[in-house]
Design goal:
There is one protein chain. This protein is mostly helical. The chain has 2 domains: 67 residues, no CATH class; 32 residues, no CATH class. It contains 7 helices and 2 strands, in the order αααααββαα.
Length: 129
């Protein structure tokens, strides 16, 4: 059998919060738990988990090259690639140009401007019914 054919994936249910997941993963890894072969982690956990995870650099050279360099860099700690993305998201903030135009507001450039503009538009829209 090939490695893929011999693999018998079993998925467990992680704790509901990412904080609890991170804590559980740290406990399992520190204890040397061998029940889990693949972990789904948050991108920000790489530095804290790197010492307990396998270096994937050589094994994933061709695959890693297909991802955004910044994603691979974020999962590389001390020259050791410890995780690969299973998906990439790109958060976006949308605004209603029609409402900005209606109230003579500019596109916000800072979080404070966004909060102030949102309040202005909501107050005027509520007042208008």
């Amino acid at each position: 059998k090939t490695a893929a054919e011999a693999l018998r994936p079993e998925a467990g249910t992680p704790p509901p919060s990412t904080t609890d997941q991170f804590g559980q993963y740290k406990l399992w890894l520190a204890a040397g738990n061998t029940d889990i072969d693949v972990y789904q982690t948050d991108v920000i956990w790489a530095p804290q988990l790197a010492s307990q995870l396998v270096d994937l650099t050589a094994a994933t050279k061709d695959v890693a090259a297909k991802h955004f360099p910044s994603i691979i860099q974020s999962q590389t700690v001390n020259g050791k690639l410890i995780a690969l993305p299973i998906f990439t998201d790109a958060p976006a903030l949308y605004y209603r140009k029609d409402l900005l135009d209606k109230y003579g507001a500019k596109v916000p450039a800072t979080w404070k401007e966004m909060a102030d503009t949102a309040k202005l538009v909501m107050d005027k829209e509520r007042a208008a019914g």
